[in-house]
Amino acid sequence: MSFVQKIIFLGFLLLSFSACKEDPKIDTPKQPTTQPTTPKPPIKHVTVPRFNVDKAYDFVSKQCAFGPRVPGTPAHTQAKKYFIDYFKGLGLTLTPQTFSGFSPQGAKYTGTNIIAAYKPEHKQRVILAAHWDSRYTSDYDKEIKDKPVMGADDGASGVGILMSIAQTLIEHPIDMGVDFILFDVEDQGKSNDGGVPSSWCQGSQYWAANLHTSNYHPRFGILLDMVGAKDAFFAKDEVSREYAGTYMDKIWKMALDMGYSNYFQNVNSSAIIDDHLFVNQIAGIPMLDIINRKDGAFGPHWHTQQDVMDVISKETLKAVGQVVTAAVYQASAGRL
């Protein structure tokens, strides 16, 4: 299916959704696109290392030090260089993927998806993803609506966790490949947008239709979005359940067994437009979303001037980071 055909197909889907990260009332399509599956490796024992939460917190703080990472701004350019230099410094293989992005006001700019591959030659692979841009307007702020959002939680928290896990893999190698994908132009959408293409999640739409390497068949992916706030509530969204439900159930059980039931709730939630939707629908790669969303709503700092470092909790970062680390290492052992 061509990119244009895929976008037309998505149009019918998006008409059933409300704006990204809001609470759509829809029935998720039952016929996901599928990819050839890669057999699991033989089951073996692995030791799951400790997640370095102090590093993750520092990575979140450094992103915020650039300012709001809105496409087309100096902060966005500086953050991009920071990520590329960091992953290159770890010895990962970098594939920056540029694409044409747009704002709801009609501005054009270049977006960049940053793909960093650990053991790129390995056929057994999983994806860890987050978005690295921050929103151009604080449209849910009660007082200030015309300023960009810092995005400490909404964007930077997920990226910070992935950066820490990447370092852990270098220090504690596994027999599996991992692709760290930082999607750009995720949070620049127009509220209640049902257009084709969607103004939300532009980077993941482009990547899913233009995979960065040929014959690419990762087993599954995990998306992190808003994973750093105090008292976060991670429910099982409908899109994740439909397309990556088996993996989601195993990871949630793993989290409960690790003592993180106060974060990973065995509760179903409605569908949501987030990067995982397009990875599932266009690329046919099962991807689940870990996202702070309780009763169809997000934290009070969401898309406001309050989304700063003050909302970030090391306890939440640790819970998510340790669970995702365990998922990766267990996957390398054939247990996930």
Task: Please provide a written account of the structure.
- The protein contains 8 helices and 8 strands.
- The protein has 336 residues and is of the alpha/beta class.
- The strands form 2 sheets. A 6-stranded mixed β-sheet has the order 1-2-4-3-5-8, sandwiched between helices.
- The two termini are 30 Å apart.
- The model is unreliable at 1-19 and 23-32 (pLDDT under 50).
Please specify the SSE layout and strand pairing:
Elements: H1 3-14, H2 53-65, H3 74-89, E1 93-102, E2 108-118, E3 125-131, H4 152-171, E4 177-183, H5 202-209, E5 221-225, E6 234-237, H6 238-257, E7 264-269, H7 275-283, E8 287-291, H8 314-332
Parallel strand pairs: 3-4, 3-5, 5-8, 6-7
Antiparallel strand pairs: 1-2, 2-4
Number of strands: 8
Counting copies of identical and different chains, the oligomeric state is single chain
Low-pLDDT runs: 1-19, 23-32
Strand content: 15-25%
The topology string of helices and strands comes to HHHEEEHEHEEHEHEH
Q: Helix coverage percent of residues?
A: 25-40%
Q: Distance between termini?
A: 30 Å
Main sheet properties: 6 strands, mixed
What integer value in Å does the Rg equal? 18 Å
| Average pLDDT rating | 90
Shape: globular
> Within the largest sheet, what's the order of strands?
1-2-4-3-5-8
Structural class: alpha/beta
- Compute the number of helices: 8
List descriptors:
disordered N terminus, 6-stranded mixed beta sheet, alpha/beta, 336 residues, two-stranded parallel ribbon
Briefly characterize the structure.
The chain has 336 residues and is α/β, with parallel strands linked by helices. The chain has helices spanning 3-14, 53-65, 74-89, 152-171, 202-209, 238-257, 275-283, 314-332, and strands at residues 93-102, 108-118, 125-131, 177-183, 221-225, 234-237, 264-269, 287-291. It contains eight helices and eight strands; from the N terminus they run αααβββαβαββαβαβα.
